[in-house]
Amino acid sequence: MDDIWKNAPEIQIDNHLMATAETAGIARTLWDEENLYVLFQVKDKQLSKNNTDKTKQDSVEAYVDEDRVNAWPYREDDGQYRVNYAGEQSFKFLSNSTPATSPGFESAAVTAGTDYMVEMKIPFRTITPENGTQIRFDAQVNNANGANLIGVATWNDLIGRASKSTEVFGSLTLSGKGDQTPPTWAEGSKLEATDITSTGVTLSWQAAADNLGVTSYRIYNGVDAEPVMITGIEPEETVSGAVYRHQVTGLMPNTQYTFKVEAGDAAGNWSKDGPSVPVTTLPTSDTTPPVWAEGSTLEASGITSKGLTLTWSATASDESGIAGYRITNGTGDKPVTVTDAVYTETVTGAVYSHQVTGLMPGTQYTFTVEAVDTGGNWSAGGPSVSAATLPAADTTPPAWTAGSKLEASRITATGLTLTWTDAADDTGVTGYKLYRGSVKIAELPGTTHRYEVTGLAPGTGYNFSVQAVDAAGNWSTDGPAISVTTLSNNGAEPTPVPTPVPTPVPTPVPTSVSTSVPTSVPVSTPTPTRAPGTTATPAPSQAPATPAPVPASPFKDVVAKYSWASEAIDTLYSLGIIQGTSAATFSPEKNITRADFVLLVVRALGLEAESGSGFADVSQGAYYYEALSIAKQLGIINGMDGNHFNPKGEITRQDMMVIAARALKAVNKLSAGGSAGDLAGYTDRMKVAKYAINSVAALVQEGIVRGDGKSLHPTGTATRAEAAVMIFRILQK
Questions:
Q1: What top-level class would CATH report for the domain 406-498?
Q2: Alpha-carbon distance values, 308 to 302, 311, 701 (Å)
Q3: N or C of the chain: less Cβ packing under 10 Å?
Q4: Mean per-residue pLDDT of the chain
């Protein structure tokens, strides 16, 4: 390790996103005005790049977000830089592009047995940092065994989303830069031009001053974008003091230039008020300008918000030869002289192209190209084209206006309904995320303002918040929040408590401060979240402990014909577990859907599980999404084919019994086993599917399933009344 790294504080890469704790490493960072430097040190037991997928090789990754704006996918200032132990590079940039190379990026890798070090030089793409500049950053170690990835560790990302979204990156504050004072010019300093010819001039100037000494000069000519760097020259002593001289060559005849000189010091500080002088080079005997052939064209392509590519036909001609081109944009800006246009042979003829940068977003331009010959004569009437740049990239997240609310209603012991007001955005809100504490529970379309939360525990306090996103992927961080306590089993009514100050989505972001030049960056280590798992939490029975009278439900259609279900329906309604099809009707005769029955089971038993994969035919905006996800995680439901559930399909009685039995087992409320012999008293026992026999038999033993006394009707569809009775009997367990 080079000495320059020794004082750079260590960044511990020890948040384990995969099971093995062996995956870990250390990163150190330095910076200057143009680059971020990262050094990784990794200890391993074996090294492998057997898998052609570069994400599954022994490697390290650096993530950089220069403007600190949440982005998914990456924007132009974001980047993912990966280098494996053998020094092979791979990248991810704007809109998830994965180019083979990254301009300006350099890396080196060294192995020592099965340990290795990687050093990266990452160019800043959109910023010129200074003391106090903050960027987002993360560091990652990937651990492979043969062709398998067995471990991933990060510095800050706790959920494994760094390759998709910048919101999980940590924060680095760049500091520690020493000298910040640029060189100064004495009052009356001059830049003088002598020995002017048609292609050159000699410039002279008095020395600038600096507290640590001037190390170099830059000369600008007012035409070319890049200056000429002047280093290592000695001043000449004159009667008026030390004077520097530099001969400028390669100029165009009969062309006006405005030369300016600036001074720089060893710390990279540059003056901005150096002296200047206008110069017009001498003409030549050639006074005939180039001529454009008829049909010459200028075309614009690759248009962005700040630039485009101009391509023109190579059809200007001159007896002394074409020396360059000049491009105007029709807005009064200074013309751009192009002497390095890219020449390309095409099937329709030779063309030149040039990348135009520094344009204003959403602006109409009319570009014209003119040619100049070696005598400095410029053409007139060159080809032109009109083009409008794209609108500026949207970096502003949706806003929550004063009075925005997140409200909870229909609160029960195990669930509630969240509703919220619209967020506002200049391009439109496209989605919302709901959080329970720091855990995301739903991601919904922008047209949705209601969500059914299920699987809560009775008598428990919860904090909910909502955030909004626009089409550019900008997420709000100050959405409204609310604190809610679910009903206890005795039916006590909770009071939702709105949070007076909007609560941002909690994201662990350690702060780091640099201390040297180039600057090193110490960090504080975020506290990792616990490893994801799946748990089922049984809720105490919600059936009344004593035979207290149950309030009658408002449903007018649960009368004589369904009197056998009225107690179950009234009780479940009073507990908030079941709802009607309208304010006055329950529709007991209607068949219940597969999703609705699972939702009732999850509510009744208070089931909980960490969020996981759902079903392909169940959208996150569906009111039953969370309940189905919980049930799948707990192994209560498997779907039709493992990936589809058919949520709106009608459920058979035997499937209803299988789900109920699995749910009871998940909370240790079904100890009895069952077998085909337990169904001997039912005439249609042979119709019970093989996969359902044990579950149906167990519920029969527990008295939860009774049939009509003679038959079970296993293949018949279940009605809402039958489902209510089964849930009621489950609660009595």
A1: mainly beta
A2: 5, 10, 76
A3: N
A4: 84
- Among the residue ranges 81-95, 516-530, 625-639, the one predicted with the least confidence is 516-530
Q: What value, to the nearest 5°, has the Cα angle with vertex 622 and ends 621 and 627? A: 115
pLDDT, tens only, 165-199: 888 899 888 876 767 789 999 999 999 999 999 88
Contact yes or no for 544/557 (Cβ under 8 A): no
485 residue type, one letter: T
> How many Cβ atoms sit within 10 Å of the Cβ of residue 22?
14
- Decide if 385 contacts 300 (C-beta within 8 A): yes
Give the Cα-Cα-Cα angle 29, 34, 36 (nearest 5 degrees).
15
114-133 average pLDDT score: 91
In degrees, to the nearest 5, what angle opens at C-alpha 352 toward C-alphas 346 and 354?
130
What local confidence, expressed as pLDDT, does residue 38 receive? 95
Q: Tokens at residue 271, please?
A: 């003056």
In 642-692, which residue ranges form alpha helices assigned H by DSSP?
653-666
Q: How confident is the model at residue 544 (pLDDT cuts 50, 70, 90)?
A: very low
Q: For residue 565, how many other CB atoms are within 10 A of its CB?
A: 21
Residue 709, CB-side half-sphere exposure with 13 Å CA sphere: 0
List, in sequence order, the alpha helices (H) in 518-611: 563-574, 594-605
- CATH class label, 191-280: mainly beta
Q: What are phi and psi of 510, to 5 degrees?
A: -70, 145
The two tokens of residue 576 are: 């908030």
* Start-to-end Cα distance in the chain: 67
Pick the CATH number of 3-173 from 2.60.40.1190, 2.130.10.10, 3.30.420.40, 1.10.10.10: 2.60.40.1190
Instruction: Output the pTM of the full model.
Output: 0.35
> Which pLDDT tens digit goes with each residue over 230-253?
877 788 887 777 899 999 998 888
Q: Report the C-alpha gap between 68 and 144 in whole angstroms.
A: 31
How far, in Å, CA of 232 to CA of 499, rounded?
A: 65
Q: What pLDDT was estimated at residue 76?
A: 87
DSSP conformation class of 264: E
Q: Which two tokens stand for residue 157?
A: 């990302």
Angle at 50 between CA 112 and CA 74, to 5 degrees: 90
- CB-based contacts of 560, cutoff 8 Å, min separation 6: none
